[in-house]
Amino acid sequence: MFEQMLLSAWSAGLRGMPSLPLRVELWDGRKLEFSAEPPRVTIRVPGRSALRYLRSPSLYNLGRAYVEGDIDIKGRAADIISIGNTLAASLDKGSSRLGEMLRRATPHTRESDAEAIRYHYDVSNDFYAAWLDPGMVYSCAYFEDGTEDLATAQQKKIDHILRKIDLRPGQTLLDIGCGWGALVLRAARHFGARCVGITLSENQAALARERVARAGLQEQIEIRLQDYRDLEGQFERITSVGMFEHVGVQHLPEYFSRVNRLLAPGGIVMNHGITTTNVDNRATPYGGGEFIDRYVFPHGELAHLSTVVRAMQEGGLEVRDVENLRRHYARTCAIWTENFESQAAHIRTLTDEKRFRIWHVYLAGCAYAFAHGRISLYQIVCGKADEDVEQLPWSRSYMYP
């Protein structure tokens, strides 16, 4: 009886909201409808114990219930995330601080960072190839007019980065977090650079080396399985694309100080990374950040742009150009989500059901978070803070030929 009262109060609260195209199917055959229009999302509750997730429907609770198989959810990922956010916002009791405290308490050692990278990236190369572009670029694409297909937009992104750092033939380029090698391959083949790419993912390193060999660029490109903290030497150009999110907010000054030491005099750095829009560097609301930390990116941390700029200055780097690509990443993630769903049957043969469910909601969740301004993406060009900058062009026109 008490359970029934709680369920009735919960459903009455939702019915008091604007129309929600949601159906909840209970274990006893009852169906709760929250809109006159056909449901776009159906939540199936197999037993009484699963009701606790609906009574406290944070993004973390709903995501955990779906991933662990305690509830089943049917619908397009974009609709699932949209309705999930509505449910979470309707009964929000304030952002969870426990997950935030645990995340900040986790040390970023070489061992823990390597383990986190392996968890996220070493699913299998085939898994990522199923929904990424043919170049396997796992970062924000660049859409000049919004009509480009993903492969075109990813190549434009790489060229946009390499033009921003004014890369020239014969220069040395370090790519920190090189992924499957798309950027260094482009830099060597089309810009004539001599490149070193580093990653902590064995799967990425193996495939990147294969691609370098197939391209006949072994004399120009070296792929290393290496932590950025162990790098030595100096490079005329440095790029870091989608990597600094793994560093940890408190370690950003140390990270940029290392980058500064690796940068040759007169050199240029470009950092391309996700940031939070929360000025206090807090995780995304309604438990979304907690879900990602547990299931997707262990130990990942997002800093606000102001924190990043300050950390760069503390590391001895001067910011010279900043570009916001939040809109571009929302579109990129939306395309990834569509690709993932269109290849669902194939992807299920590449991984287990739990990981499939994690990525099913994660990609759509990222698209939603970027589209709604909870997270952002900035490309920041910088150089040594104490240098004369006469080597740089006078205007930004060289970035946009």
From TrEMBL:
SMART domains attached to this UniProt entry: PKS_MT (SM00828)
Domain Polyketide synthase-like methyltransferase: 134-376
UniProt keywords, alphabetically: Lipid metabolism, Methyltransferase, S-adenosyl-L-methionine, Transferase
Transferase in keyword set: yes
Keyword Membrane: no
Pfam family, one: DUF7884
Similarity annotation: Belongs to the CFA/CMAS family.
Protein name: Cyclopropane-fatty-acyl-phospholipid synthase family protein
Taxonomic source organism: Massilia hydrophila
